[in-house]
Specification:
Protein name: RND transporter
Pfam family, one: OEP
Membrane topology: Lipid-anchor
Strand order of the largest sheet: 2-3-5-6
Strand content: 5-15%
CATH superfamily: Outer membrane efflux proteins (OEP)
Helix content: 55-70%
CATH topology: Outer membrane efflux proteins (OEP)
GO molecular function: efflux transmembrane transporter activity
Keywords: Cell outer membrane, Lipoprotein, Membrane, Palmitate, Signal, Transmembrane, Transmembrane beta strand
Shape: elongated
Distance between the termini: 63 Å
CATH class: Mainly Alpha
């Protein structure tokens, strides 16, 4: 019975150590729909499939230059490295907090030369403060807080959740960079195609100008025809500098994403390339998988977890803290005596701290943590709802962009036929030159719109994969570069 009595305080401490204050985190229930919303109205040819999401979605464009550029951005981008540095900071902070779960052990050693007052309590030298003395001492110091109410465990739980927040922040940065890189590359190819179309139309306009001059020389055309043709040439030429500047801006934007100096990518990107075109069918996964992929949803969940754990920390502060501490060491006035049996000393015992009156500080802190948890819960719902709206908007945009592109393609075909017909009729004298200029302007406008609409389809595809949270899984989380 005496042994049971002797060990009962220890058994009680162990039992209490399993207690944790505050609510346990419960992952929010998913309210995902069973299937993606069907397209209303006319459906385009390319539609999403509820199949496993393609992680490396940029490879579906079958553009080696784009794939290589994305790899370079993921490896070198400075924003991503900054996010990685923040992740390392959060992990280091978690390590410092988790250290409170284990006992601390330290060694103190020192030497001092001192002289006490003759009027003081005592004088180790024995000379009533009339002479100085040496003091040699060394101690092995240990301490450990008994986490009876789970305060430290909740702190570590909150720190783990904060690490998850930083991880999802990095993934979100990476996801945005993938979409931005693909988007800028698509715009670059669209601008280059627009440049090519404009230059081709410029050749046609110059041919028309020469034709009008020849007809004027023959007395068939008037000076008005020549002036109108010259104005058409100048108008088209005026488009080129803006397009060239836009092309160079996009190359520089891609250089910045890849952490390269300005114009460093011109040698490999200046040559025109094909506009990346999405596949006819593409997999978008299941709606229930969205919360597992999107970094912003995962981050909002981690913030809610951290806020929930912080309530437990605040509640545990209402209870007493017990810390076991002790030291074993040596102390001597003479170095020759230091280390001897008679120089030994030790001290062991618990330390208890109990909040009695805090002026409402603890209660206010608890109320703050509970309000922060409510805010985090509402923010989680907002992020999830915003994700579904974003996906629905992008799906409709993708469908509408395809329909617009297909209609504009038909307009381009008809305008080319119209221009050939107008030029032939002008040569035959059936129409005046104004008809030729009108049809050529319409062709140039429709061709530019068709290129823009084709780029918009690819851009919508990129936006859809970003909204679905795909792409960051293809890259390992690496520490930031020095």
């Amino acid at each position: 019975m005496s042994a049971l009595v002797r060990f009962s305080p220890l058994l009680l401490a162990v039992a209490l150590a399993g207690c944790s204050q505050g609510p346990d985190f419960q992952r929010p229930a998913s309210q995902a729909p069973q299937q993606w919303a069907p397209v209303q109205g006319e459906a385009a040819a390319s539609q999403p499939l509820a199949e496993p999401l393609q992680v490396r979605w940029w490879e579906s464009f079958h553009d080696a230059r784009l794939s290589a550029l994305i790899q370079r951005v993921a490896a070198n981008n400075l924003d991503l490295q900054i996010a990685s540095a923040r992740l390392l900071q959060s992990r280091a902070l978690r390590s410092t907090i988790a250290a409170d779960e284990t006992p601390s052990l330290g060694l103190d050693a020192g030497y001092s030369r001192a002289r006490n007052s003759a009027e003081g309590l005592n004088d180790p030298s024995g000379n009533a403060g009339k002479s100085a003395y040496n003091l040699w001492q060394g101690d092995l110091v240990a301490g450990w807080e008994l986490d009876l109410w789970g305060r430290v465990r909740r702190q570590v739980e909150a720190a783990d959740a904060s690490v998850a927040v930083a991880e999802e922040d990095r993934r979100g940065v990476l996801l945005a960079l993938l979409a931005e890189t693909a988007g800028d590359y698509i715009q670059l190819r669209a601008v280059q195609q627009t440049l090519e179309v404009t230059e081709n139309n410029l050749k046609v306009a110059r041919h028309s100008l020469q034709l009008s001059r020849d007809r004027q020389a023959e007395g068939v055309a008037t000076r008005l025809d020549v002036a109108q043709a010259s104005a058409q040439v100048a108008s088209i030429e005026a488009r080129l500098p803006t397009l060239q500047a836009r092309r160079d801006d996009l190359i520089n934007a891609l250089s910045l994403l890849a952490a390269e100096p300005p114009r460093s990518l011109q040698a490999e990107l200046l040559a025109p390339g094909e506009l990346p075109v999405p596949q006819q069918r593409f997999a978008v996964g299941l709606p229930s998988e969205l919360a597992e992929r999107r970094p912003d949803i995962r981050q909002a969940e981690a913030r809610l977890h951290a806020a929930t754990a912080s309530i437990g920390v605040a509640k545990a502060d209402f209870y007493p803290r017990i810390r076991l501490s002790g030291n074993v060491g040596m102390q001597a006035l003479q170095l020759a005596d230091f280390g001897g049996w008679d120089s030994r000393r030790f001290a062991f015992g618990p330390q208890l701290s109990l909040p009695i009156f805090e002026g409402g500080r603890l209660k206010g802190t608890l109320q703050l943590r509970e309000a922060q948890q409510q805010e985090a819960a509402l923010n989680y719902r907002k992020v999830v709802l915003g994700a579904w709206h974003e996906i629905d908007d992008v799906l409709r945009l993708y469908n509408a962009s395809q329909l617009r592109r297909d209609h504009l393609a038909e307009a381009v075909r008809e305008n080319r036929i119209a221009l050939d017909t107008a030029q032939q009729q002008y040569v035959e004298g059936a129409v005046d030159f104004l008809n030729v200029l009108t049809v050529q302007a319409a062709l140039l406008a429709s061709e530019e719109q068709w290129i823009d609409s084709s780029a918009a389809v690819s851009q919508a595809m990129v936006g859809l994969y970003k909204a679905l949270g795909g792409g960051w899984q293809a890259f390992a989380e690496a520490p930031p570069k020095a």
